[in-house]
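Q: We require from you a single protein entry containing the residue sequence and its fold in token form, and nothing else.
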Amino acid sequence: MRLSTVLRGVVVVALAAVLTGCAGLPTSGPVLPGLPVGDVEADSPFTERASSPIAGAGPEVIVAGFLEASITPTDNWSIAKEFLAPEFAETWRPGAGVTIDVAGSRAYASSADSAEEIEEAETADVTVDLDQRASVDADGRYTEATGNTELAFQLARDDDGEWRITSAPDGIVLDDGSFQQVFSRYALQYYDQSWRHLVPDVRWYPRGSNVATSITQAAIEGTPSDWLQPAVHSAFPADVLLDGNSVPVSEQIASVALTDAALSLDAGTLARMRTQLEKSLVATGVSEVRFTVNGSELDADEAGLAPDGADVSTVVLTEDGFGSLVGGEVTPIAGISDALAQIEQPISAIDLAQGEGLAAVQLSTGAVYAITDGKLNELPAGAGLVRPSIDPYGYIWSAQAGAPQRLYAWTEDVTPYSIADAWPEASAVSALRVSTDGVRIAALVTIGGRQSVVTAVILRDDNNVPTGLGPTHEVVELSTPAQGVVWLGSDSLGILVEGENATLTTQIVGGPGSERTAPAGSIAFAGAKSQAGVRMLGAGGTLFAPRASAWQEFYEGVLVLGTRAGY
């Protein structure tokens, strides 16, 4: 029988009452000493505490309580295991993954047809239908996975006559509202082929667990996500493993014990290993990694990386010219602003390279020019190109909007490099942006009549000349058509829906998205290293910046909002 609305309400109220009682702060008891300043406690993040099984509860209520207990990961989901038969509790694997569903979508059905049948039965089957939103695998990788999903459970009475689950799918179930309260996002770091840039690979781990250990194990013994693998690699050799099952952290220092194979590594490899792991552990509060073998510390320096500069100024085109907007004044950019002023036709887009020695300018006709050292060179591609994006090696990227497979990267002297087999399933591309590391390209494409935001890695030869793209990775399928995409930081994308009901979605690459209202009539935007640096341009030439939950006007008379390479 299907769990009635009333019964579901009773379950929710009962669980909420217990949660309210358990989640309150203590008002009595002894004062306990805290951690020394700088220490990191593995189980410190606060999480809600689920309720234990209710005596006399029927099979559907037991299953509902078991699923609700996913909100408490403490002690490897020990509360959830209270709903299981002891023998099954020993084999159930909560860490196998996460099914993320739409809040309120669960519908329960039991093999018993009446309360009398439940009272007399010794076993029962319960199915749960839910509207799935996404999933997380055992390695912490998040994937969009929409659609109806059915979960099957078997139950039996224990020696006290209480119903307990004897069979259930491995992994846990969380609704989309609870997921980010129970799990936190971390970015594993991998090197590009030049060993000068680190590329993030987002993973999700439960709060209340030793996250430093999980990240270290993944960095040393795991592999990058499939779509990243063709263009990134780890500094850790395959024969170097973590020695032990934990990584202690004290005073922001992680002590990482390695196997004997690490003794033969050269200084350069050890430095890269240390830097890769330190950057991967930043979000856990770790500031330094120390490697040991058999108790003896290894001498590992830090490896050099390409500069990761702070947020830089907004670039705009006004009636007075093009330049950096600083303190309410537009400051010209040498070698770029004067050459751009020579263009008589309307300009629709400007992308400025890192170092400000190169710009890609698109006219309202669709033609694109490269500007460097005061000279203009037209890209030999004609009209129909999407807005150009410059990578850190000075290549200007664009594609034919109606023929996304015609993707090109041009040098500053407009020598073309054709990128074969780009987005093979796409029928159109609306926007593209190359990341600051030059390893990833994000695009707004149309596949099967639906718009999606996708990413892929850029394949390069030993001279960093682009030669192709890796597999297409769908970040999110859009329900509302969007007009543009930018990078917001190293692992998130901004997606703009223009018009009176303009919205800005911040979409994690490897995670969920969040939406906020954009200024009405927004027609363009520019990404940045942080979300605080994003800029919106209204149809009337007003420039907006985010301020808490609102947008603040801070400049007028903007003809074109430029972008900076990588954002």
Q: What stands out?
A: Residues 67 and 173 are 6 Å apart (CA to CA).
